[in-house]
Write the structure tokens for this entry.
Amino acid sequence: MDEPTSTFSFLGLTFTWTTVLSTLLAMTVVVLLAVFLTRKVAIRPSRGQNVIEYVLDFVRGILGDQLPSNLARQFGLYSFTLFLFLVVSNEMGLLLQVKTASDVTLIKSPTADPLIAFSLAIMSIMLANATGIKTLGLGGYLKNMFLKPYAALFPLNFVEQVTNFLTLALRLFGNIFAGELMLNLLASMAFSLHGFGWIIALPLEMAWQAFSLLIGGIQAYVFVMLTAVFTAQLSGEE
């Protein structure tokens, strides 16, 4: 049975309140974190500045392993922002879920919604393709994309571009959605078992939540890394 949802229409399009509110909350958290951790930037960094600089260096390391220095600099801000948004979004539903009296979920992980996962994947793939065209020119981009290493492999190269997009989106969505689903099932088990059922369900819930927190961070890393890898491939800089 599908989970009850609340929707609204705008300019002929239908939106889900859960997706809109969850995404806005994740964006707000990212902005507030960035402002709070960098409000007093100094040569002798504070703890907050150390945290944001560590994340920035971590993302630079991901890009530096996959892209030449000029492209790594160009993708630095985008990848840093994307990584922060993914970490917050992936973990949000594990730590906070808000439901109405009618059991409609208002707040959960935005990336547990396939529309958000696919939107992020489309954005990253389009940026990777645009970078390839800018770097190689349209002719060089098409040759690099479809005719390498041999023209006879064109069908496989075309399928690869489609699967790259699906891989990026489905890996993110599947892992985050499965984590939240399992937590909800464990919570339901705790309430459905009579007596001391919570004694069994609570340790399982805590263990799975810790595992899901780890998976959320790994998926943010994998998404940014694969974006860099696809960009390198399409730019001929692999």
Notes: The chain has one domain: 7-234. The first helix runs from residue 17 to 37.
